């Protein structure tokens, strides 16, 4: 139906040999992907007699072995064999005894810059067949694709629907002709053909549907964070539409950088019971945050922060002073550990990442070593950047699991003692109630997390040490005592959880005098099991000053800072002056409302 003449030179050319994104032929992209001797002993191309000469000419120009082009002898749609019969022809004629990768070389892929070795590695790891899938874009119709339902725990495809009618499944995960088959499965091709003589049933999607739903074969799914189009018989309008769409997306993603933000947090109630099957309420605050920026680059580069990762000093005395105050561990290790864990997670979960390098840098104004979750904020922001850069969605790494991921970066990679609270509130943002009950944690690996109305939070104040070198070692030996079943510690953690439930009710009913009493009880309970020696003189001094002015006071984190709730405005003015005159930094807490926050 093309009347302009602009595309008349493409008439009769096979779809695989049409120009793709950037002008390169669609098949050229796929040939680059699979032309790897370390992974594939041979590469074959199956076509019909009508288009054979086109592919022969392409092969001679692209160093593809012409003898590996298989001609199925058909010339029309009416006489076609069907993709399953074509594949069976190849397997039988070449006497295959190895595993095979099958790809439709005429699919237009949004981004073919993925690592095929990761696909093969995941296929070998899972010990079953493998089907690649992607998440459909808005506007794509499920009845035009093979739709899969995938178990998020095992990656096994539980159901396969070939071009299902609307409302058959809620899944938006589309399978394409991109499969790995084990050698022992290949004989089922002949079995399938015997039972399906109709050529319309001899498409690979229906074969997969039969293999999964009826034969109950172990077929696993691997997600590519990209899109696929021009599948099957399509017209010129579809070709123009998707070529333009993917070209625009590729151009946009190549030139822009991505910046993500995570905020500091204050623990309002229940901390530190999050690491002991307790309950907590915490809130992210807009006073302080960490920014991480990522952009594509030729090499993968992690940029040291000029203040937090110093490599040059004014003098030996300067080095001594900075090291004494800031320590030796900056933020660069957090970026590196997050990247390492991210790659590991995607490999294990069957998510093939694009072969794109990047430059990653961070900045933060969260005060160090005062228990405001500065480290986890950098990890959280880094993870956001990586997910956006590689086009991962919330379905690929859901919020509850994202918090656990961030914790694992710190505990497993960097051996930082920490609990889930900070990571949960930085993922969910705002005011969050968290239940880490043992039953929940052991059955599903995460707790029950609930965003509360941000207006439930009263006006808190925050103070922290200007020199946090005496912030104490808050966790002390409490964990070991808890593991040993110490009755005092076990009872205290249970009491923290009870205080949290009472605080939730007090906040929801705006009973702030009750909340103030509960905050004081939280601190005294913590003091009873951690002792003054572990809390440190600086923390105790801030609590003492706050209470002098009738304010409720408690530690919002591991030490070095306090939060307070002063219901008398006049006393609050005097309280701030006294804190400032005593060498502490003090400010009003600005809640972070995720619905209105400008920094993301």
Automatic annotation (TrEMBL):
Q: Which segments constitute the GHMP kinase C-terminal domain?
A: 505-576
Boundaries of each GHMP kinase N-terminal domain copy?
Answer: 350-429
The family database entries (Gene3D superfamilies) matched by this protein are listed as: 3.30.230.10, GHMP kinase, C-terminal domain, Spore Coat Polysaccharide Biosynthesis Protein SpsA, Chain A
> Mind listing the UniProt keywords for this protein, alphabetically?
ATP-binding, Nucleotide-binding
**Do you know which Pfam families this protein is assigned to?**
GHMP_kinases_C, GHMP_kinases_N, NTP_transferase
The Nucleotidyl transferase domain covers 13-197
Superkingdom of origin: Eukaryota
Q: Which GO molecular function, any one, fits this protein according to its record?
A: glucuronokinase activity
- Transmembrane feature ranges: none
Which InterPro entries did the record assign? Answer: GHMP_kinase_C_dom (IPR013750), GHMP_kinase_C_sf (IPR036554), GHMP_kinase_N_dom (IPR006204), Glucuronokinase-like (IPR053034), NTP_transferase_dom (IPR005835), Nucleotide-diphossugar_trans (IPR029044), Ribosomal_Su5_D2-typ_SF (IPR020568), Ribsml_uS5_D2-typ_fold_subgr (IPR014721)
Note the PANTHER family from the entry: WITH PUTATIVE URIDYL PYROPHOSPHORYLASE-RELATED (PTHR38710:SF1)
Protein name, per record: Glucuronokinase with putative uridyl pyrophosphorylase
Give the originating organism. Callorhinchus milii (Ghost shark)
């Amino acid at each position: 139906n093309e009347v302009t003449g602009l595309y008349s030179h493409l008439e009769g050319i096979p779809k695989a040999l049409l120009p793709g994104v950037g002008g390169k032929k669609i098949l050229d992209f796929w040939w680059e992907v699979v032309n790897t001797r370390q992974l594939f002993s041979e590469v074959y191309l199956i076509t019909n007699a009508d288009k054979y000469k086109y592919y022969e000419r392409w092969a001679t120009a692209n160093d593809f072995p012409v003898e590996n082009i298989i001609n199925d002898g058909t010339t029309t749609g009416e006489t076609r064999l069907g993709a399953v019969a074509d594949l069976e022809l190849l397997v039988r004629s070449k006497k295959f005894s190895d595993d095979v990768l099958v790809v439709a070389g005429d699919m237009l892929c949004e981004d073919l810059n993925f690592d095929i070795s990761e696909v093969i590695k995941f296929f070998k790891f899972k010990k079953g067949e493998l089907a690649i899938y992607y998440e459909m874009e808005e506007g794509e119709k499920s009845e035009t694709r093979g739709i899969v339902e995938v178990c998020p725990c095992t990656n096994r495809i539980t159901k396969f629907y070939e071009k299902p009618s609307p409302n058959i499944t809620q899944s938006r995960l589309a399978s394409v002709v991109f499969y790995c088959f084990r050698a022992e499965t290949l004989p089922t091709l002949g079995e399938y053909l015997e039972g399906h003589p109709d050529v319309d049933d001899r498409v690979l999607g229906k074969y997969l549907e039969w293999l999964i739903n009826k034969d109950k074969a172990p077929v696993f799914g691997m997600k590519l964070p990209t899109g696929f189009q021009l599948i099957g018989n399509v017209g010129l309008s579809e070709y123009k539409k998707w070529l333009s769409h993917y070209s625009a997306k590729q151009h946009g993603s190549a030139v822009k950088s991505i910046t993500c933000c995570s905020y500091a947090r204050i623990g309002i109630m229940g901390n530190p019971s999050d690491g002991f099957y307790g309950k907590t309420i915490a809130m992210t605050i807009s006073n302080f945050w960490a920014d991480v920026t990522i952009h594509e680059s030729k090499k993968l580069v992690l940029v040291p922060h000029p203040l937090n990762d110093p490599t040059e000093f004014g003098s030996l005395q300067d080095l001594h002073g900075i090291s004494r105050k800031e320590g030796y561990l900056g933020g660069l290790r957090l970026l590196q550990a997050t990247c390492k864990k991210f790659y590991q997670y995607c490999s294990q979960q069957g998510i093939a990442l694009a072969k794109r390098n990047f430059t990653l840098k961070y900045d933060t104004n969260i005060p160090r070593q005062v228990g405001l979750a500065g480290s986890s904020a950098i990890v959280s922001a880094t993870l956001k950047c990586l997910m956006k850069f590689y086009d991962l969605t919330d379905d690929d790494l859901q919020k509850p699991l994202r918090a656990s991921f961030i914790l694992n970066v710190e505990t497993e990679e960097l051996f930082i003692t920490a609990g889930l609270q900070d990571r949960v509130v930085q993922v969910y943002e705002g005011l969050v109630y968290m239940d880490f009950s043992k039953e929940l944690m052991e059955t599903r690996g995460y707790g029950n997390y609930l965003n509360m109305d941000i207006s439930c939070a009263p006006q808190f104040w925050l103070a922290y040490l200007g020199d946090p070198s005496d912030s104490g070692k808050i966790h002390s030996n409490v964990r070991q005592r808890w593991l040993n079943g110490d009755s005092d510690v076990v009872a205290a953690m249970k009491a923290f959880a009870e205080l949290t439930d009472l605080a939730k009710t007090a906040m929801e009913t705006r009973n702030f005098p009750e909340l103030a009493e509960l905050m004081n009880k939280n601190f005294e309970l913590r003091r009873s099991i951690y002792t003054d020696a572990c809390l440190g003189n600086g923390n105790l001094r801030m609590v003492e000053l706050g209470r002098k002015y009738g304010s409720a006071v408690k530690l919002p984190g591991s030490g070095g800072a306090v939060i307070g709730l002063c219901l008398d405005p006049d006393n609050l003015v005097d309280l701030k002056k006294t804190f400032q005159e005593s060498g502490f930094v003090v400010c009003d807490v600005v809640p972070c409302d995720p619905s209105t926050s400008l920094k993301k």
